[in-house]
Amino acid sequence: MNPYWLAPAVVIGVPLVAGPLGAWLRLLRPDTGFFLLGMALFLALAASAGLAAATAYATVTARPWRRSALRAALLPAAVALGSVAFLQWKGGADLNDVSTDLEQRPAFAGDPPQRAALAESEQARLALFAKTQRRAYPDLAPLLVPGPPGAAFASALAAAGRMPGWRIERTDPGRGEIEASATTRVFGFVDDVAIRVRGEPAGARIDVRSRSRLGRADFGANAARVREFMGELRGRLR
Question: What whole-number distance in Å separates Cα of residue 43 and Cα of residue 32?
Answer without folding.
Answer: 16
